[in-house]
Protein 1
Amino acid sequence: MAEPSDSPVAAAADPVTAKALEALQAALPDAVVDSVLTGQHPWIQVRAQDLRATCRLLRDDPALRYDCCHLISAVDFPAPTEGEPHIDVVYHLVSYVVRPEASYAKRAEKNDPFLAIKVSLPREKPEVPTVLDIWIGADWHERETWDLMGVRFTGRAELPRILLPEDWPGHPLRKDWEFPASYHGVPIIPPEGL
Amino acid sequence: MPDEHGMSMIPGESLLDPELQQSVILTKVQWVKDWGRRHALWPMAFGLACCAMEMMATAATKYDLDRFGAGVFRASPRQSDLMIVAGTLSHKMAPRLRRLWEQMPDPKYVIAMGACVIGGGPYSKFGYHVVQGVDLVVPVDVYLPGCPPRPEALIDAIRKLQFRIQERSGETLPDMPQGLPQDPTDEDGEETSAA
């Protein structure tokens, strides 16, 4: 992957994303923790308790209108170089109103980036309020994030697994997840040197 | 007359009077049963992933699996005697596969089609969700490597199975594998494990 400085997009901050950051800082002065506005995938990190207010603002602001939660993903940091072990949840947002280009390639062509909203959660008890009532499409993404990374989304009626069976041990995309010896009588040979 | 695979079409042929050979055929009931069985394999469509595309291509016009009597794909295990496990078998699917296999009437046969089914394939080492070989769940008659195998290879596997059925005519069924998976979603409380 190329360094951000090599990309022609990287030189200047994306105007819509900059507008989003401005609006956030005006409405929720303490919410924004960190941000990078350049590149094809600019991101803004907010505090977990301000996530819902942030998402509402980004969806409802007439100049921004982030009307689609494209993806929710999570990153596990069991031993970061600085700070406590944490799990980052990343919300990838798209506006089909302000920027109607649907495909990633066309967005890249026109320098229309996705916006990522990050929250950092303690690794022992990763809990974040749900955004299901803000974007209905977040439902399956939240279930997948719970299924594979063990992030608990609070405030929604139920949070079942989406891919793995209900009695599966643990959340397998955690870096410290261990292979069970067998599952329902079928033996599992764990990989060596993991 | 022995056929091209060295199998005598008529057991006890050489004992017959040459004139009698013109008018009388001697054979065993078991042999005839297996002859019919091997030329009328009814596969169960068990497509799990991309190998199923090749399985469909094999059954379609160009390769025409019906030429070998094995083109009648059934959607029900109760009507089929050959299970072509085509594609990646996950741990979530394994109890269902076992259960469908148990619902097939004897004698039944299994072809393990593709690298994933034989040993986990590309998911064998780090794929937490893939069973490392379908032979951990059901006994396998023919292993068919490839990723995915071409239709010619599947035809070859079915031919091999047909010869095997005739060669093993009258033998008892192979041993069951150890460690039978239990179906966790068995809601009606039926006993799902094999006796």
Note: The helical segments of chain B are 18-21, 29-38, 51-59, 94-103, 115-119, 151-167.
Protein 2
Amino acid sequence: MNSTKNKLNKKNQPTGTRRRFLLPILFLLGAFLLMILPLEGFVSSVKAVLSYVFIPQIRAAHKTVKYAENVHQTVWELLRTHQENQELKQQIEMSRILSVQAQQALEENERLSRLLELEPRARWNGTWAHVAYREPTQWNTVIIDKGSTDGIRERSAVLSLEDGKEGLAGIVVEVNENTAKVLLVRDKDFSAAVQLSRGQETGLLQGGGASPVRIKYIPLLAQVEIGDEVHTAPTSSIFPAGILVGTVSAIHKADSFQTALTVEVEPQIRSSAVKEVFVIYSGE
Amino acid sequence: MQSFLKLSVLFLIATVCHWAFSTLFSFGGMSVNIMLVFSVALCSVLKPEWGYSFSFLSGLFLDFFGTKLFGNNAFSFTAAACVVYFLRERFDFDGIFPQIITVFFLTCLVGILNSILLLWFTSSAMWPGGINLVSGALVGALTAPVIFWGVRRWWLGKRN
């Protein structure tokens, strides 16, 4: 049995080796034949046959490469578009900022233009200032960008403008070199001697904080109606007389044991509207 | 049948890569012979029957574009396949370095052989120039590890 196997192996080995060498030799001979044959005739027939195999392949390769080129271009364009998109986004963002700034400048310009038409300049000597800082927790106190170097002193009256009308905004309570703190009308600690426009009765206006601003000590028989204007009284030692403080918004009739009326006032200058102020120099 | 299909797909991929390299990555007369790299890579993993056939066909494919001589590439590719099968018993083609060296020298060899054959059969020299030949061989050699890896992965289904 073993001897038969060995015989077979011996027979196969030379065949395998022969095949191993035969194949390349055949291919080399074939190629050599193709080279020595003239290009016309047999070779052109071989080429014609091969064209059925290779031409679709060449087309496929060409299309693939073209597609790859297009992909490369598309990717490049996408990258460029992405970059342009980023730049445009930045420009849009910048435009938005500029637009907001322009809007703010426009509003400021409008306010200042109106302020220029104000009478305080003619009537009182003072200085214009901007609200520099506002503490969110203390809405009725603001800090303005002018101080003692600009002639501002404590207890100076502060005016502002809303809806085209000037009005009392508050009083200076603290002064630093370049800044000053203003207590606005609505603050609880604010008080001023005021006069009702209709009957000329005077009273003490007090800020209410979250509650309405009130005038106390108005005589029971005083002529007062909702919508009446309230001005600073000539008797005030702090505020010049005649500054509009607000309008009457409610009247509380006296109870039997009370001897005076309480009038609620809607301040002319709302705390949130204070942006530019006119500070009257003390002693004016 | 599956092997034949695999080989056909690989042949198509090789032609596409060859086309791409010859149109996109050839500068100043430098020709990168990617078909040869594929042929060498396949010979390093295939049985001689398949390897010689693939090499011969790849050569014929390149000859198809020639106008002066037909069969020179088939001859030189088959000769290159002979060299690969000779080296396969002595070198380990799993390593990157043997792959690069083999492809580099075989590209040079095929270039020189083609030029000699052309000179012999048509009496017109087609010498591409030493620098072009070497630079093309270098680019081909640099692509060799990737193509070897791809071919092995495709044919043997393994990473190395």
Note: Chain B has one domain: 2-156.
